[in-house]
Design a protein that fits this description.
This protein has 3 domains: 14-89, no CATH class; 94-381, Aldolase class I (TIM Barrel), CATH 3.20.20.70; 420-479. The chain is built from 20 helices and 11 strands. Strands 3, 4, 5, 6, 7, 8, 9, 10 and 11 form a 9-stranded parallel sheet that branches. By secondary structure, the chain is α/β, with parallel strands linked by helices. It binds S-adenosylmethionine. The site of S-adenosylmethionine has 21 residues, from loops.
């Protein structure tokens, strides 16, 4: 094949994730990492600008953001952190969206060398939930208070074909236990065909999430030596097929620790630029997972682990580069790391998570099965503890799923972000769904802290009429079994 040319609009993986462009970007970033004039101009560009109706943010190109990531001047790093927090507050307020993963099956035909579900691992028990078991898991998740799930499965066309995934989604949406329901199912399954993405869209999924693992083609091929996931182009072009299949909320991510983080960072942003250039809408979310210890996996065998400070810097630079994209952090990280990153732009966290197949039903909050687990969970607190901790630190835990259910996906979600209507829309939605949580699932201590927060936060809703409706709805939540109010 002739040398690929960098082209963000191309549909070919090696042209929109162009190795030469990434290398030039890294060299440019290294050469300019102490170029204060340039760094200041990039920081100025990244700052949120107030408009008549709200805020707008220019975002940064992969080259600009890479300069910030390379910069090692302590005051400038502090400024990056400050702007990251400003952007977070301007577009997402103090709300943090809550979710939990639901592992459906750990059958997998791939050979991913960092994942314990790889085909050659004969010591891990293989398990696939029956529909009865899916129902039991969903009831357990609803009883914790969850409304939003990310379903996870290995890739195995025989054991987990698309029909199985679709059946599970149908089961999940059909369970209404007490006042509970799952209102948004995000899907993290292997790259698939346009036809299958269309089926997922028809099944009513929220975001389609697929981690690239690494953007470095050669490493990618070595890390995925066997199975369908070995095909770098098929994996990297998956989001284009998903969008062709009608899914307009897609979630990107790399698994930090596999390759050099600066390379991954540039690749990730080039992928976001590509989606914007081709489909007119960037990624809905970016996840920042770090490699973890797991069954037969020792993260120390991989050379590219990153320390907490670098991890924080990466997250903050992502916040500056793609201000309208949500950032997700999972329970792979400790309470302390999550706490720090929440100030730097993270907008979604998981809570009370189990990464094993069938890890919720039948286990108490402090019991966790390890046999089919995908990786060690560092933050092992219950959802109630995570919710309370968030509120004690000034964040509003939100169980809202309104945007997707009102059709505000893709660029329509981005327009809401820019319109300045967040305080009249997302904010009351967060308070109403938090009230549902407090009423139906919270411990007395969490409930007390929560309602104090709700009362204070209601005052911040600018439109009187909206505030009055939100107050009425919260009163109805407290006094009756009426649920699922939304703007
Ligand atoms: N099988 C699907 C695929 O091929 O994309 C995705 C589901 S997998 C359950 C979800 C993600 O877990 C993977 O994309 C990978 O990034 C992450 N993962 C795998 N092994 C891990 C480990 N040891 N530590 C942390 N995350 C891991």
């Amino acid at each position: 094949m002739a040398n690929p040319i960098y082209n963000p609009k191309s549909l070919k993986a090696e042209e929109f994730i162009h190795d030469g462009e990434i290398r030039e970007t890294l060299a440019y970033a290294e050469a300019n990492k102490r170029n204060v004039e340039l760094i200041d101009s990039i920081l100025d560009k990244a700052r949120p600008q107030k408009t008549e109706t709200g805020y707008v943010c220019a975002g940064l190109s992969h080259r600009e953001a890479s300069v910030l990531l390379a910069c090692d001047i302590p005051e400038k790093i502090q400024e990056i952190y400050k702007i990251a927090e400003e952007i977070k507050l301007a577009f997402y307020g103090n709300r943090i969206v809550m979710f939990a993963p639901l592992y459906l099956s750990n059958y997998c035909v791939n050979g991913c060398v960092y994942c314990p579900y790889h085909l050659k691992n004969k010591q891990i028990p293989r398990k696939k939930l029956t529909q009865e078991e899916v129902r039991a898991e969903v009831i357990a998740l609803q009883d914790m208070g969850h409304k939003r799930l990310a379903i996870e499965a290995g890739e195995d066309p025989k054991n987990n074909p698309i029909e199985y995934i679709l059946e599970c989604i149908k089961t999940i949406y059909s369970v209404h236990h007490k006042n509970g329901d799952i209102r948004r199912v995000n899907v993290n399954i292997a790259a698939t065909t346009v036809e299958n993405y269309r089926k997922l869209k028809e099944a009513g999924i929220g975001t389609y999430i697929l981690f690239q693992e690494t953007y470095h083609k050669e490493s990618y091929e070595q890390l995925h030596p066997t199975g369908p996931k070995h095909d770098y182009a098929y994996h990297t072009e998956a989001m284009d097929r998903a969008m062709e299949g009608g899914i307009d909320d897609v979630g990107l991510g790399v698994l930090f620790g596999l390759e050099l983080y600066k390379y991954e960072f540039a690749g990730l942003l080039m992928h976001a630029e590509h989606l914007e250039a081709v489909h007119g809408v960037g990624p809905h979310t970016i996840s920042v997972p770090r490699l973890k210890r797991a069954d037969d996996i020792d993260p120390d065998q991989f050379d590219n682990g990153i320390d907490d400070e670098t991890f924080a810097k990466i997250t903050a630079c992502i916040r500056l580069a793609v201000p309208y994209t949500g950032i997700i952090i999972s329970t792979r990280e400790t309470e302390a790391t999550r706490s720090k990153l929440l100030r730097l732009g993270v907008s979604q966290v998981s809570g009370g998570s189990r990464t094993s197949v069938g890890g919720y039903a039948g286990y108490s909050a402090d019991e966790r099965p390890h046999d089919t687990e995908q990786f060690d969970v560092s933050d092992q607190r219950s959802l109630d503890e995570v919710v309370r901790w968030l509120m004690e630190n000034g964040h509003i835990p939100s169980f809202c799923t309104a945007c997707y259910r009102e059709g505000r996906t893709g660029d329509r979600f981005m327009s809401l972000c820019k319109s300045g209507q967040i305080l009249n829309c997302c904010h009351p939605n967060a308070l109403m769904t938090l009230s549902e949580y407090l009423e139906d699932y919270a411990s007395p201590e969490t409930k007390e802290i929560g309602y104090k927060m709700v009362e204070e936060e209601l005052k911040r809703i600018p439109k009187e009429k909206v505030r009055a409706i939100a107050e009425d709805n919260i009163a109805a939540i407290k006094a009756s079994t009426r649920r699922d109010f939304r703007f």
